[in-house]
Amino acid sequence: MKRALFTTPQEVEAAFYEAFEKGDLDAMMSVWADDDDIVCVHPGGQRLAGTEQIREAWRQIFAGGQALQFRLREQRAMNGMTLVVHSVYEQINAGGEARARQPVIATNVYMRTENGWRMIVHHASPAPAALESEGKRTPKTLH
Amino acid sequence: MKRALFTTPQEVEAAFYEAFEKGDLDAMMSVWADDDDIVCVHPGGQRLAGTEQIREAWRQIFAGGQALQFRLREQRAMNGMTLVVHSVYEQINAGGEARARQPVIATNVYMRTENGWRMIVHHASPAPAALESEGKRTPKTLH
Questions:
Q1: Number of domains making up chain B
Q2: Domain containing B16: what range?
Q3: H or E element that contains B61
Q4: Is the pLDDT of residue A138 over 60?
Q5: Rounded to an integer, what is the distance from CA B57 to the centroid of its chain?
Q6: What CATH number should be reported for the domain holding residue B122?
Q7: Nearest residue of chain A to residue B111 (CA atoms)
Q8: Residue A79 lies in a domain
Q9: Residue A39: closest CA among chain B residues belongs to which residue?
Q10: Is the Cα torsion angle B141, A122, B12, B32 positive or negative in sign?
């Protein structure tokens, strides 16, 4: 596994999305703290906890082989001394899909460890369609 | 507004769910840090940022008047010096509903402020049905 040393949360975040785009499992896991309490929630997915579950899910995602491109926007940062939280919108483009995907809301948490900054939480959920027209805040009804 | 002083993240979390159950808007907002960067994502919802948006959403939720009861399980805590992250499952019972609701996965982040510990992030998303039978990990198809 690569022994990346990240000196800022921002570097970890960039490496996370780069590994995601490349489908590089080793690079992805080098972004995460090696800890039983790390948590990853993919959009619509179950909570994954600990290195083993999180690695296996990424292995399955990357085995799908779909090339994704991420553009982040509206980052909000909340900075502690040893923990930092970023809230972002992920705008995802998938190769071969004509229509843009719904944006994803992600909460990313980084921790300062003995081995530099690492990711400890990635919680992602689909943003509702209303985002595209801020004036229309009424929730979609299901009929 | 109540001037609660929370000395631990656990106290904030308890107060958050108590205010949610009671539909008490002032108590709910006393849990949150008063900051432009606080973030709240309700299940399936848009990202709300800052005190004003977050308060207005709680006002609308509480205006609905539905009594909810929360039971938290499988809490995982990641502790920094000034920020603490809790990942929990919310088991929600709604008055008048015969069937139990799907659990919700929540990432709650707390910050130590001049006014004690406060909530700065609540990111909630529905857990998929597969939770109830861990062996069946196949995603639900939409047909």
A1: 1
A2: 9-127
A3: helix B50-63
A4: no
A5: 13
A6: 3.10.450.50
A7: A80
A8: yes
A9: B87
A10: negative
